[in-house]
Amino acid sequence: MGDLSEAFVIAFHLLTSFDGELFEIIGLSLKVSLLAVFISCVCGFLLGAGLCVYQFPGKRLIVIMINALMGLPPVVVGLTVYLLLSRSGPLGVLGLLYTPTAMIIAQILLITPLVAALSRQALEELHREYDEFFRSLHLSSFAKLKALLWDGRYGLVIVGLAGFGRAISEVGAVMIVGGNINHLTRIMTTAIALETSKGTLALALALGIILIGFSVSVNAAVMLIRSSTRDAEYA
Amino acid sequence: MANIILAALIFCLTPSNSVAGQSIIVQSTTSTQNSGLFDYILPLFKSRTGTDVNVVAVGTGQALKNGRNGDGDVLLVHAKSAEEKFVADGYGVKRLDVMYNDFVLVGPSDDPASLSGTSDILDALKKISDTGSLFASRGDDSGTNKKELQLWRQAGINVGNQSGSWYRETGSGMGATLNLASGMGAYTITDRATWIAFQNKDGMKILCHGDPRLFNQYGIILVNPQKHSHVREKLGTEFINWLTGPKGQSAIASYKLNGKQLFFPNAK
Fold it and tell me: What CATH architecture is B23-100+217-265?
């Protein structure tokens, strides 16, 4: 019980004293996850919308695959990216292992299927609704895709947040490909794992509380922006 | 909305480390990181040479494997025979002694196998086996795990048969294994540095130490640039020379935690 209450005290102290190392770690966590989410959203939204609009053989199989890959185990992704980026691996010459770029690549692989599957689900409903309308206008598939993405944008924001949630909380993959190097690839989750292994449980939990706090802030900020732009459009 | 996304992207794309100076990657063990040794000595090296030392802390087995793949410039690990094999196979240039400390057997304060006062580690392990008391093993091919398995063999006990009953393989780092041992009241073997630095002891204490068989030697190796041409030979050699030279050796000796010296330099 002592560790629990102590954790809140430490978290408060770290935040109010503007601990430089802490903010460096938080900054890197946000950078890696936001960039990974952004790239995953570009790919995942297009893929999700494409799966609604285009008809082709084997489509069902792809949908099943993407849905299944939502549960991709992070360690497996981490190991695969390690083997690819290792100096002995096919992409070893790039020298990307143990860099933030490697962590972003791993997170993109993890969350793109999630974003694609959820956005397909969200846009499928909309597509059914619009189907006749689209047909009456004789729209090209690409025009339909654009219309779906634009009209479904508020739903897609939530999909993006789900992707962000998976990225920012992930530890297995980034630990392997980033190496948890101090001042270089250490992020919130790997720092928590390190402190836990040192037995400094209160500090580990304090970092956890701060991580949750930042996650809540990002979500709140996005929701605020979403509702304010929505109101502005209706006004 | 678009402005905000743009701003977030610019934030993401600004590099966090404004000065991208020279650096090397050292594959090392969890004990050297968890004990705080690197946090203490690396800034000293950096201030002398301007070189950043990026430490990837994994078990010795994984560090050697990563070194074979060329994913590091220098290895600082603790499993002498595996290190010598690494060099003999051509993956390392040569192996040098750096420092030592010792392993200790720790366990719950109620001590179900009555080990307290035992100075012979093999006797202690036999008592654990005879009483079927819980023992947490790293089970991860780390330096500590290699040493522990060697001790069981010397004691003539086949722990492979007992895995899952009283012999529990955690498959994780020293800290995680200590957390687990403290949680389930098990004995375990740890290096002394990690033990002193570990803060979740929860009543556990050292029950057997001082046996010469518990000696723990750390060695340093430059990954062979002839195998992996990208190895930063000059900077790596500079780091090895510093750590095994008078400056590095006295830095190691002067690192203390709770008033105790954790590592004893013994480079020749």
Answer: 3-Layer(aba) Sandwich (3.40)
pLDDT at B133: 96
Best mutation site among B69, B178, B190, B202 for testing chain A: the one with the most A CBs within 10 Å? Answer: B69
Tell me, yes or no, if the two domains B23-100+217-265 and B102-214 fold the same way.
yes
- Where exactly are the structural domains of chain B? 23-100+217-265, 102-214
Q: Are A229 and B1 within 8 A, CB to CB?
A: yes
Contacts of B56 in chain A (CB under 8 A): 98, 179-181
**pLDDT tens figures, B3-20:** 777 777 777 777 655 445
Backbone φ and ψ for B94, nearest 5 degrees, come out as -160, 165
In chain B, which residues have their Cβ closer than 8 Å to the Cβ of A31?
11-12, 16
pTM of the model: 0.89
A185 to chain B: closest CA residue? B54
The dihedral built from the CA positions of residue B266, B253, A191 and A206, taken in this order, carries a sign that is positive
Q: Do B175 and A183 touch (CB under 8 A)?
A: no
- How confident is the model over A182-188, as a mean pLDDT? 93
Topology (CATH level 3) of domain B102-214: D-Maltodextrin-Binding Protein; domain 2 (3.40.190)
> Are A38 and B70 within 8 A, CB to CB?
no
Please say whether the dihedral angle defined by the alpha carbons of residues A82, B59, B48 and A195, taken in this order, is positive or negative.
positive
Q: What pLDDT is recorded for position B18? A: 45
Which tokens belong to B230? 């990208």
Q: Nearest-CA distance from A88 to chain B in Å?
A: 5
Residue type, B146: K
pLDDT digits (tens, 9 = 90+) for B156-191: 999 999 999 999 999 988 999 999 999 999 999 999
Angle formed at CA B169 by CA B149 and CA A191, multiple of 5 degrees: 110
CB within 8 Å: A38 and B5: yes
Is A212 exposed, middle or buried, given 0-12, 13-18 or 19+ CB atoms closer than 10 A?
A: middle
- Please give the DSSP secondary-structure letter assigned to residue B91: S
Structural domains of chain A, with CATH: 31-200 (1.10.3720.10)
Given a contact cutoff of 8 angstroms between Cβ atoms, the answer to whether B194 and B175 are in contact is: yes
Contact B8 A38 (CB under 8 A): yes
CB B107 within 8 A of CB B229: no
Query: Does A199 sit within 8 Å of B201, measured CB to CB?
Result: yes
Closest CA to A40 of A170, A133, A130, A136: A170
Q: Nearest C-alpha of chain B: how many angstroms from A198? A: 5
pLDDT computed for residue B16 by the predictor = 57
